[in-house]
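Memo to structure team: turn this sequence into structure tokens by end of day. - J.P.
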Amino acid sequence: MMPMTNGLSLEELMKEGTYPEEYAEGENWKILHGDTLKLVKAFQPGIFDAVITDPPYASGGTKQNERNRTTNQKYSSMSAANALPDFDGDNKDQRSWTHWMAEWLYDVRKACKKGAPICLFIDWRQYPSITDALQWAGWIWRGTAVWDKGNSRPQKGRFRQQAEYIVWGSNGPMPINRPVSCLPGVFRYGNPQNRIHVTEKPLQLMKDVIQICEPGGLILDPFAGAGTTVLAAVMTGYRAVGIEVTDSYYKLGSDRVRIALEAEQKEDEK
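Reply from structure team:
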């Protein structure tokens, strides 16, 4: 593959001798196939303008045997015949998950510019742990936004679990004069239809969330999954790098980004 000229060549992104064996790319985007814990250590320092990602929650239950189920069993109601591929990294107990989160968050902060924002999706069960990990890794925790999904399974006598959360912060001081407009604290979008990932987020939601990054910035998604963050970033004028460890989702996400952007380009040329 030829080196890119938009700041996304492997030589510009990563330290010599640490390049992944496999990656996919296009204009203004790249998805690396590999383990986030290893790859985030390989990035050049201070290159990313934002980190926006949906890490494995290692949630889906209040007991360990419930968290150890497959990701489809925990997060999907699809039949076995129609089930989407399971994804890696979602079976840790709370202590090991918190430690794992803190480790990659510490290393990825070194790869970010000063003041770079970070946005992490999470559910209520791991909310306390993710805020601990974020701060342990040296980020400033600045608040929480809400993704209101609008619907969820009803439970008699209980509140619906219809929201997930976006814990956000910054790599040190975050000047208020950045060229970014005021952003809402609640985003209302239903779960995407015909999704290709078990926990896929709506494309428009990600287009909204990434506006926390300065225009034209370089965004990192260490858990690319279906490629939604990468796709949303490029569609709205940003550059993006993703990492995906699960073989099936590396291929599905990379293909999705490539096909969607090629279709958009053809539409623009009409």
